[in-house]
From TrEMBL:
ATP binds at residues 8-12, 140-148. Its EC number is 6.3.3.2. This is 5-formyltetrahydrofolate cyclo-ligase. It is an enzyme of class 6 (ligase). GO terms for molecular function: 5-formyltetrahydrofolate cyclo-ligase activity; ATP binding; metal ion binding.
Length: 196
């Protein structure tokens, strides 16, 4: 158990270091290619109510994706993390990224619960799941907080779980524990990976 935790920590550190070495222009080009690939992906294009995220740390920047979703008239759903109850996430509908967001307890922008309506999890038709690293089996390494490992099993079996990553965040094997959850599909700046 401790060995797996150490391997996860080491992988997070290595990916973060590698991403920090990217120039702004390299990062922007990768994000643009990934974003275009996502918006060409039929499951995402056809979705009406996507669960998205606001990036943090080594996760793919989603600001452009969020803006495009609103422009495409999608119902944008973002997580609000409960500061008093660990692993508790409320899914909230966001209409305006400037007015409906506030800095949350984790230091990440999240929906302002006083301005946004709660969305039942069964209404989400595609879930974009954050991650630091993925492998081709759909294994996912998150930030280490465990929120999404608790959320993923609550999503409908028909809801596609999609990870976003730069190609350099795809590794040979993500160390997994019994509580860790997989994604179905990973979209990178170079390809779409369907879980083996």
């Amino acid at each position: 158990m401790e060995e797996i935790k150490e391997r996860k920590r080491e992988l997070r550190d290595n990916i973060t270091k590698m991403l920090n070495e990217l120039s702004d222009s390299e990062r922007s080009a990768k994000i643009r290619r990934l974003e275009d690939r996502l918006f060409d992906f039929a499951n995402f294009l056809e979705s009406k109510i996507p669960l998205l995220y606001v990036n943090f740390g080594a996760e793919v920047n989603t600001r452009g994706i969020l803006k495009r979703c609103l422009a495409y008239n999608k119902i944008v759903v973002l997580p609000a993390f409960n500061s008093t109850e660990k692993y508790k996430i409320k899914l909230m509908k966001v209409d305006n990224l400037g007015e409906d967001m506030k800095l949350g307890s984790k230091g990440i922008l999240e929906p302002d619960e006083s301005r946004c309506k709660k969305v039942p999890i069964e209404r989400v038709d595609i879930a974009i799941i954050p991650g630091v690293a993925f492998d081709e089996k759909g294994s996912r390494l998150g930030s280490g907080d465990g929120y999404y490992d608790k959320l993923i099993p609550k999503l409908s079996a028909t809801t596609r779980k999609v990870g976003l990553a730069f190609e350099s965040q795809i590794v040979q094997q993500v160390p997994m524990q019994s509580h860790d959850r997989h994604v179905d599909i990973i979209i990178t700046d170079k390809r779409i990976i369907y879980k083996i």
